Amino acid sequence: MTQEERIARFDKVLGIEAYRFKGIMQKFPNHFHEYYVIGFIENGSRHLSCKNKEYMIGTGDILLFNPMDSHTCEQIDDQTLDYRCINIKPAVMQKIAYEITSQNDLPEFIEPVVFRSEQVSLLRELHQMLMDERSDFQKEEAFYFLIEQLLANYTKPILAKSFEASAEIQKAYKYMDENFSEPISLDDLSNISGLNKYTLLRSFTRQKGLTPYQYLETIRVNHAKKQLEQGITLIESAGQSGFTDQSHFTKFFKNFIGLTPKQYQNIFTDNDK
């Protein structure tokens, strides 16, 4: 059996993260990120659901997730997964996109999967340089060329939101956005939205692409990530992000991110040494 590896790096120059998950069989629950994810399958096959559409992905396919794109994936065969990705915060993407296109809008990837993409080799090369913690400008050059090609082939500018959640659902998710560190119940969301519980669950899931509970846990994990980046302790991060205990925090963090909270924090503390 292939030994499991979960490796993460943070590149200070580019301001991006790089992950490699090798030999894992983990199912990732429905969730979203507040940043762009550009990844590829080196080996293995997965079933991906993104924004309520289904995909079968495998070796050579590139994944392109916009911030807030809800998605889940799981293994569909007995092969272990070898998956590699880079994560780009919106501010970083906006800066580099402006340099490339002279447009100040955040780009939006049109589809989450590019099958047998020509850009895989460039992404693989860049990812390896990030894993090796290269400091030369070849790494920056590869990053710019990759983003240039992805923007040219797979994006459109975000000029206006084509869909906005109903007023009732907006009340529910905005309440979770503002109060995620506190206990929140389905009764709370029902009262705030003015919808009965079943209608709330059905409408929220249809409009946001994930259930209210999945949305809340994702908000908490994303907040915890920011806290860990700043060097706040695991215990404080868990409490301030709304997790009831350390084991609950670790379980959800690893399920959503693929790393334990400590592994994630280490990519920033190790970088400072």
Automatic annotation (TrEMBL):
Protein origin, superkingdom: Bacteria
Keywords: DNA-binding, Transcription, Transcription regulation
UniProt KW Transcription keyword: yes
Matching CDD domains: cupin_YbfI-like_N
Organism lineage string: Bacteria, Bacillati, Bacillota, Clostridia, Lachnospirales
InterPro entries: AraC-bd, AraC_XylS_family_regulators, Homeodomain-like_sf, HTH-like, HTH_AraC, RmlC-like_jellyroll
Identification of the protein by name: AraC-type DNA-binding protein
GO MF: DNA-binding transcription factor activity; sequence-specific DNA binding
